[in-house]
Each structure stands twice: as C-alpha cells, then as structure tokens.
Write a structure and sequence with these properties.
Length: about 110
C-alpha cells in the first residue's frame, strides 16, 4: 500500500491520532487538533482545511479549535503559512518538533 493511499484510508475511516507527547504536555483536545492537522498534511505536506470543518470533524467548537491551534503554534508544533489572511482559510504546516515513527498494518508509512 502506498503512503498517500494509506493516509487517505485513515481519513476516510475516521482515524485521528492523539500523540502521547501532546496529550501529556497539553491535553487530549490539543493532541486531537494536531492529529487532524497532521493527517490532512500527509497528502500535500500542508493542511488547508477550514476551522469550521475541523470543529465539525472533532465535534468541538470553532473557538476551541482556534485556541488549540494557537497553543500548537506557540509550542512550535505547527506553523501558519498564511498568518496575514483574515476570515479565510489558513494553510498550516506541521513542523519536525515531534519525531513521529509509526507503522500501520505492518508496513511503514
């Protein structure tokens, strides 16, 4: 199975990773917001999804998503590539702060 196909299947199947480091340092909610951004950034190397959609998919409020995005930015886990935009989609990239090594179904992604 190729990398992009594996990630697409994860998104379709509703899997959201909650990385232990973020759960321990911040909260489960912060980890889940990061997990969604991380998942969406696997196919294009950036995450270009609305805050509304993130909030719907995670079943949390818009303001809660914004709060945790700010925490992740300040912690250096994600970067807003479009900080000048107001009231529009932002593009987020995941930094290399987390050293993520994982396997799925016995094959590395």
């Amino acid at each position: 199975m190729e990398n992009s196909e594996s990630v697409s299947n994860l998104i379709i199947d509703g899997f959201v990773p909650a990385f232990d480091e973020l759960v321990a340092k911040y909260s489960v909610t912060t980890a889940l917001v990061y997990g969604k951004i991380w998942l969406y950034s696997q196919t294009n190397k950036v995450c270009c999804i609305s805050i509304d959609r993130l909030s719907q998919e995670l079943n949390i409020s818009y303001n809660t998503v914004l709060k945790h995005i700010k925490i992740l930015e300040e912690g250096g886990y994600i970067k807003d590539d479009t900080p000048e935009l107001k009231n529009r989609y932002h593009i987020y990239s995941v930094t290399n702060k987390l050293n993520i090594i994982y396997e799925l179904n016995g094959s590395e992604l």
